[in-house]
Amino acid sequence: MRVGLYPGTFDPITLGHIDIIRRATALVDKLVIGVAINRDKGPMFSLEERVAMIEAECQKLGEQTGTQIVAHPFENLLIDCARDVGASLIVRGLRAVADFEYEFQMVGMNRVLDDSVETVFLMAEARHQAIASKLVKEIARLGGDVSKFVTPLVNDALTERLA
After folding, report:
1. Spatial CA neighbour of 25 closest among 56, 62, 59
2. In whole angstroms, how large is the CA radius of gyration of the chain?
3. Low-confidence residues of the chain: pLDDT under 70
4. Of 64, 44, 51, nearest to 138 (Cα)?
5. What is the pTM of this model?
6. Which of 87, 93, 95 is nearest to 70 (CA)?
């Protein structure tokens, strides 16, 4: 069984994330969504809320694709998380050149730590390339409409959180 790991904070999960998840299901039998516990970022949503949103958004997708999709919180090194879940593949989404420069460094470091784990980059579809959780939260905080960037479930969660 080929296991992939797609890590991120997913605060909140966006249509860009879901696009990468959907496309990654074609590469693996099981996709673990690694939900980073990054206390330094000060997430808007708790770990439990982020995991619940991911599970809700990915349930139907898993059924449609036949790929097992699970959310897995982690707070250790990415490469250690990959080992913990049995992943031989790390999936990373790219939006712009700036993403690539950072990701290129990460791949190099991860290869030194464990060269048995490959990293695959998936470009977000053009209509999703500008979407970033940070920007979605900022637009929502300022009263803007984020419904084009997130699912109705996440839009409702943002609206409720900011009410």
Report:
1. 62
2. 15
3. none
4. 44
5. 0.94
6. 87
Tokens of 150: 């997130």
- Residue 86 falls in which region: left (phi positive, over 0), alpha (psi -120 to 50) or beta: left
For the record, the structure tokens of 3 come out as: 């296991």
pLDDT score for 129: 84
The first and second tokens of residue 155, run together, are: 């839009």
**How confident is the model at residue 128, as a pLDDT?**
85
Catalytic residues: 17, 41, 95, 133
CA gap 152, 142 in Å, rounded: 18
CA angle centred on 120, ends 34 and 72, rounded to 5°:
10
Q: Strand order of the sheet with strand 68-74?
A: 68-74, 30-36, 3-8, 89-94, 118-123
